[in-house]
Structures
1.
Amino acid sequence: MKKLFFLILLLAGCAVCLQAQNPKQPSWLSDAVFYQIYPSSYQDSDGNGIGDIPGIISRLDYIQSIGVTAIWLNPVYVSGWTDGGYDVIDFYRVDKRFGTNSDLVELIRQAHARGIKVVMDLVAGHSSDQSEWFLQSKEAPDLRYSDYYIWPSFKPEGGQNPAQGGSLDDAVRNNASASLLSKFVATDAPRGPYYIKNFFDTQPALNFGFANPDPGHPWEQTVDAPGPMAMRRELKNIISFWMDKGVDGFRVDMASSLVKNDPDKSATIKLWKDDLMKWFGSEYPEGVLIAEWFNPAQSVAQAGFDLDFFCHDGQYNYSSLFFYGRRGFGPNATVTMPYFDEAGAGGLKTWYDLYTYQYDAVKGNGYVCMPTGNHDFNRVCTEGRTNPEELKVAMTFFLTMPGVPFIYYGDEIGLKQNPAAPSTDGSGFRAGCRIPMLWDASANAGFSTAPIEKIYIPQDPDPNRMTVEKAEADQNSLLHYVRGLLQLRKEFPALGADASWKLVSSLDQPYPMVYERTRGGERCWVVLNPSAKAVTVTLPAETAKPELIGGNYKKCNYRQTRKGDVISISGVSAAIYKF
């Protein structure tokens, strides 16, 4: 009996070792690999030039072959298409360009049959100005949806100029007030002369209340007023509607934008943590909520999201690693030399300071995730970085860092940014990263049978462009390399989401970057040299001699000397060691 008791304790201990960082998170999340799909650009099944849900279903075997365990779909709801689907008209219905609700349920069924989760985009902070809710709200103050939106009766003047006096708190509040004033949209609606938008004018903000309502502004309702509380119930209804159809969770667009005049986000954090998160966790314990907040210390550690992104926006971003200019868009962008470039002229300190702050803040609560790209900023294969060998070094970084990996569709084959792509569905300069997928040598690279002029966004015009078909046939392709990295991540817990991370090399010598991942008794070092020149680094002496288990390099040498351990690695190379 005693032996059985100790065996149970031992098994329980092992279970604890294998669970995700936060026991409240979905059990599948720590081993997940996400694949983001922009539905209009992935696969067209009906020949109209626009991707759709049946097209995605037809490619599920390929998606599974990469090593992906979850897909995230950009919005598929009925939309006015002034912002790529993020201006939602009907949150409960799939847009006819993509198919039907039944098509989405079939996608979920077939994905689940392959062990793939499906996550939708939840546009929580605004709707389309063509939504039934908004059309009713603009008419009168006492209808069902009247208080789903914010209707200022006049436009206040700006607050005190921080430069002319006042405390730092005053400056923060004034800046927040000025930011809100920029979102006043003039209208001739019977309801009032203005409404408040969230992003474009076509995206009126949903009303979750104000953090500190001004008594002189009658439209500024408290967060617990009837209108904002009704809006919370509607948001829960939307979530329940899709979760009950089999969806596995949501990526929440502009998750920090809900409560207005909330400069430190404390009221928005409280709304998520004390209401929405508690409800969601109780109703859907295996569901995931992913924040687009760009501040994991707030969204994950405080508000309770499962993960948040460290990528292109806000203060906490990786622009110094990958972007030529802020986002790498346009001929007039300020040129900066990123770390991941053959010139070898970048640095790590800016990124390191921002990242380690977030990483330390989130440990034990959830994940800080660095996606390979997304629908709002430049692809990793862009401008000066189109060599497949360079892309392998970059993908080694993305897929061996802590957190849950997110691969933007096409990045696994080196789908290239098209800076000449015309604005489509309100994409503006973002069109270049939303170009259609390249599958094979057939017309339109297998994306669509439509005439080329009907294709959603022009594809990469390079006649030598990489396709899935080419990549499959080449054992040295980026696609096969990505598959190998994901397999390594699966085989070695030290490369997984929950393993600890620390920089081993010095910020004063940025090339190569060497970092350590540790889980249990297993340790791995990842060595990255994006520069074209071979480099050598001396590190503190290790007692164990490591085994080279992966990477992409011409030469890589690890020597243990009296002065320390010396690693020499060729240009544009990556190596992974296990101790």
2.
Amino acid sequence: MSWTPEDLEATLHRLDGRGYKAYRDIEGSYRFPMFTLHIDHVQGDPFAAPSRVRLVVSQDAARFDPTLFATPARNRALADFITRAASTVCDDRSRRTGTGKGGLIAIDRPGQEVLERTSVAVDDSEVEARITVGLPAAGRRILGRRAAEILIDDVPRIVDAALVASNLDAAAVRRHVEAVQDQAFLRDALAQEHLVAFVADGAILPRRSGVDPRPMGEGAIPFEAPPSLRREFTLPNAGPVTGLGVPEGVTLIVGGGYHGKSTLLSAIELGVYDHLPGDGREATVTVKDAVKIRAEDGRSVRGVDISPFITNLPFGTDTRNFSTDDASGSTSQAANIAEALEYGTSLLLIDEDTSATNFMIRDHRMQELVAKEKEPITPFIDKVRHLFDEHGVSTIIVVGGVGDYFDVADTVVMMDAYRPIDVTERAREIARKHAAERTPEGGGSFGHVSARAPIPGSLDPRRGRRPEKVDAKSLTTILFGRTPLDLSAVEQLVSVSQTRAVGDALVLMMKRFMDGRRTIAEALDLLDREFDERGLDALSGRRLGHYARPRRQEIAAALNRLRTLRIEQVG
């Protein structure tokens, strides 16, 4: 049943001064002249999470050009643009009225990346925005007249400013949509050109700071590909674009400190996502399944086969089925790679600065001093070529001090004052001139990649007899029942809305897709299919506006770091 705005106003005036729980009387749908207001859930008290509200405008009123949402990429981009427009309205209002929880109006806030979100949905029939409203109170007494101003006067301004095509900058909308479509096209084109990443000429890669992901302004040096590695693509909207094509295989990024090595790798690792126009990385794209790998002292590891890298541990510990509550730098890095291979990747991204030295290299002097039978670690340098030759997995490594990697590299790019130079042939000359004295270790193949099946009961987020509780505390922290889940080393998460989805995805997988026999990869396949068919609403069964879609790689990373996890190898 639908009521009118006048019904809503009358109800709120009647509730004025009553106990806060009486606000629940306003749950329901209200037909305004331009849209329908759905109050889906009213908070139980002034200090609880804000109330959930949906604004639905028919396309007869919204009148968005169907070509703007005709493909998944364009639909995602249009929804993102509308979300940003609505967020601007909410921010402007907050600056005028303050940001206290009572009276707050908010929508999920996007960053530099354009993600699939539940904040806005667009289809042929309607446009829907999902917002939250903090219903005002004096203590625990309803401020009904103030609530009426918010819901009847303030909320409709979001509809006027963001959900009606004629009130938006048409050129900006189209530019946003076309930029995302071009990036999706370019990313899909990488494989057929045998590339794993592409960085466009003119890209601005440096960010303002470690806490401000917007592009650096004055002083930023536009990227310019070396001629030998320059590739050209013709995009559906922007037309021809040139830039650095990173080939499949083993690529080194070298150069002096502060010359842009890690900046380039950071741009590549976030090239799995599309970026908004003006970000500087609009045409910097990477294969969708790329995984950043680093050492992670102290992480939990469960039932992982790390034997390609680590064998013959003291006291006979089985590294083919390795578990620990407190991994070292080398064992954590080995586990991170083994897990990435298990759930699916075609590209590893590694920075020497965040790697365990003894995992990356063992030079000839150390080999002479410590015999191989006394050293359980086979360094990555001796496995990286096998990884590509046998499994088709490429690697991009930032290297600042280990020239022995020249022997295994296909491509070497030197960053010089933020400008890339192809030094592959020079690196090969140096490798021939100064032959490595170290002895390759680890045999003539990569080794086994295991499959594992989680035991469902080990993912139970209930707290004793209390109901399940999963709460994303920050971008990098989830409280899973009583267990804190630390994702600070999962560097390709970019939004707390993704983190929230990761936590609830673990619960969904536990309930629906994990039976003690199904592998992690198989469960993730089913989860991806569920998201593709039902969207992120599958996570809760409710119409929540605070999810952004994570990749399977980040969901699996969270699963593998859950300290309660119990698992069985199945192959």
3.
Amino acid sequence: MLMSAENTAVENPTPAHADVPAALRRSYRDVYDRRIARKILTEFCHERVISPLQVAPGEYSVLSDDRRTEYTFRAEILSLESWAIDEASIRRVCDGRELTVRSIDLIVDLRGTLGIGDDTLPEYLEEFINTLANSADRPDARRIAAADLAAADFQTIEQSMTEGHPCLIANAGRLGFSADDISDYAPESGGRFPLTWVAAWRADCDFAAMSDVTEEALLRDELGAETLDAFAGLLAGQGLDPADYCYLPVHPWQWNEKIAKIYAPDIAEHRLVYLGQSPDLYQPQQSIRSLFNVTDPTRHYVKTALSIVNMGFTRGMSADYMRTTPLINDWVRRRVDGDEYLRSMGFEILFEVAAIGYRNPVYNSITAPGSEYRKLLSALWRQSPVPRIAPHEQLTTMAALLHIDHLGTPLIEAFIERSGLAPAEWMRRYLRTYLHPITYLLYHHEMKFSPHGENLILVLDNGIPVRAILKDIGEEVCIFNDPDDLPQSCRRALTTEPDTIRNLGVLSDVFDDFLRPLAAIMHLHGLLDDTEFWSVVSESIEEFFAAQPDLAPRLQQWDLFAPTFAAVHMNGLQLGNNRRMVNVGDSYASILDAGHELQNPIARTGPAAS
């Protein structure tokens, strides 16, 4: 059945500052202000944009652009040029007077050093302030102590994350959202809302599905017969034939802010017909445009176009991509289906089973592929992980391993305590579930994914990692070596990376982007010092290749024990273009800093060192 007007309000019963004393809110802002100031220093030092002066053993100084303000702090420089900064030690002194550390002031004081131009600074600050608010201003009910969060359900963990991307500073900008939109649609607000549905003229749509999925069966399973009958009745009541239309889910914000206005002529001509809202409620995930069905968690995620600027991209979705995404998923599934090694590891992939995109005749005729005006009205359906776990198992985003609660306790510490394992053994279990399958996919199947924290779901049993689930396939997979069976419809996923940098699928994407910040958390909190951390990683890689002797030739080609590898400066990329940080389909080589080589932390113990 369709939802009536009285039932369409967003389910978000906790106002942003309800029952939270002003002094406590101020305290929370101070905590996260200082925490993000530390991240600014950490990541821009890592990218060699900031070059601190060592003023004493373990103590460093950074001067503002005008030389009037000095920032001092204590730090250790760990592997991969990872600056482990003691955030409590950060001081700001201007003209001899100590001032409160404010992360916004830090960016303004160093804007020239950071390479932020006068024209760029206001919008970057807007993205940054929004990111700070994500942590500092979230509802008090969403602040959960790490010990409690370690035992929480999947979606409670999902909405409790504060860190965002571990490398990017302005990682939750959400340019385009109002304050009400943040309350209604941002992951940290915990809101749950229905999707808007439209009927789109079939001749203007691209619908694609994996080989065992049909449009009719998908919609019946996702919506139910009663809702489908109601949709058909609405069309018939206007003298329209339901067979001439596709049904397409739309994010409520996208409908109100974009579709209802830009596509008003299409609506007037009945090329698009508003159908209302379906009964199920959805919760936004960290990626913000991916929505989890909380009414029936066994149903698919729905990912929708959302034309806001967030973390280096405008988050639209094009019909051009939708018509090939399920086909790429189909090809990947054929490659990995029946793989005995992946099955033995319990490793699984959430496939994007179907997708749909609407092509506006006018805008399509005047724009080229890649235009944001071709990315306004599309959606896809991705499998849910919920049916894949046993009752005693727990799902968590892998990003949770980098989460630190409002009291300063890392969530990984709580997971380890819950497991009863020593930190080094916990790490070994985790690396087998995550690093081994990702390495196998690259070296055996010659496919590179984007295995960062938000794209991996861990399955835990009493806090112990037992397997991993990968998502975001169609947009992120890179296929190497031009396989003979790769159809033309999937060739946008083909890459021609040279052998010399294929190892970056692990060295950069895993070691630098995720394990580096994880190592710093474990080091600073006394769980596992940096040297032991990377020793465990090295042993894990050696264990993997010892069990896969047939991959030895490829290890020689794509050496994971190479002495150095090229760095990617992610904040520099975002500052260069915050709406399209990287052109999808560009060679990996185009985003590397050829002048910045990182020392590989496992090179000293690996085969390449012998």
4.
Amino acid sequence: MRGPSWAFRAAIAAFAISVPLAAQAMTAIPIADDDLALSVRAIVEGRVELTESVWRQERRAVVTYVTVSIERVAKGSIDAGTIVLRQIGGRTDAVSTEISGSPRLERGQRVLLFLNTDDDGSLHVAHLSLGHYRVETDTATGRDLVVRDSEIASIPAVSRNLTVTDVAYMDEFLSTIASTLTSRRAEAEGYAARNAGAPLRAVPPEYEVGLARGGASSPAFTFLPPGFRWFEPDSGGLVPVRLNGRDAPTPSKGLDEARSAIAAWSTISGSSFAASYAGVSSGGGHRPNGINEIAFGDPLREIDDPVNCSGVVATSGVTATSAVATVINGQRFVGITESDVVINNGFDCLLSDSVLLTEILTHEFGHTIGIGHSSERAAEPSARLADATMYFIAHNDGRRASLRVDDSEAARLLYPAEVSSGPLALVSGSLPDAVPGVIYAVDLRGADGLTPRVWTVVSGMLPGGLQLTQDGRIGGTPVESGSFTFGVRLADARGDEIERSFTLRVSDDPAPFLLRAKYKTAGQKLQITGVHLDATSVVIVNGTILEGVAVKFSAGKGRLTVKGSRGALNLSESGSDTVEVVVRNQRSNAISF
């Protein structure tokens, strides 16, 4: 037994050295033994006799029915005999629905299960794998042990002095559970009374023996071997992701945190993967609907409610098909058709911290693109693996959506991009101003060289509240005004290096900054995109102020649009043009197009 903790949890082999494996992970705060016992409808000991994974059209997902022969009932109105659990997730020959953190229930396995019910009374393992113990024999003593599948390492910040059991002698563990149910009988009866109106079915109403045609057992809750990935990036496509943030506890309703997580995985040099925020959603959950979603509040009631701010915080899942597959570095990967992240309800106690929420979403989103854990060793000796955002324990060190070297190399391996082997180049020039107290995110750009390319600060200091990630993102929330000069080094895998000095101004009156411009001949309009622009912007083309033309500003896109012929806008008929903008008597950088 051990003290309480919370961690990213997984039921897979160690990720190690950036090789993408099938990822099954959830973010969880382990439930204390007594809270777990009091918050379930049944506790049973038995043996798994059969697992049957089938596609259920009404659920638009693979469902696995698990037949368990009962040997002992420690809690609940279940007669000794046989029960059938209904667990969302599993795989058939053609399709896979993978839900992170699902219990690994295998034929012949002896189990101790903590069970709750769906709305129709069908039984499922409570709190995903937190309610599942394997029963094994201690070879030294001959006594039965109860063992959770995966280790959950401690984070010292958790202060509740409670007992969480991962491994114990079964008779002692069950004795403790029985003592809790007796000494806290009023709480146990209160939970039972709250659920008195809901049935408790030994068998789901739709279940029939042999649903898996041929009666064969099919393994549940394992990803299609050996891995999975999106195929859209291979042809330059984006993976669209929507957000249901209605129940999110942060000021942005989860938008800032979700967009940061998406952007982190979409801006890795040498990786072709790119996702985009596609707007709001009213749905979400692990039920395929053709939409990739990040959803707060567990909209489909698929996760058991937290108990005293403990339990399953978030899960990620994918639907994949073996109809699309490829081989990368000798490994076979099948195609993801949908991915979802679900955040449980009732965790404002934890997720109101925007910094921590962003790290959690970044980790879970990494799983939805096919990346596993860097390591699952609590005492990982490799600093590189332990520092990865995909390490199985949350760091809670203020990193937000920052990715580390191991994370980036995993993405490059799974989504290789065409990268030039020419001489390393540092492309970025000046930096846009930042505003105190406002989130800042700018990517420094390098080109060519041999990936991976790594950025580091070698002199001076960034403004307080901002950091430079190894992938070249300057991000954070500046906390002080002023002008800050610092030197950065860009190094590639060949050992080539380039250093350059940058100056970043932090001000409540930021200067306009242009990112790109283009003229669309078909619509006869000049479009200018940048930051710190507004409707008062004055446009300068090839050194001449445009007068007598309307400048339209789109705040949502950070875009200025000026309509007119090339001649009217002082554009050349051929060759390059230069554009600048003046806002509040401040002149922007000049860009050519």
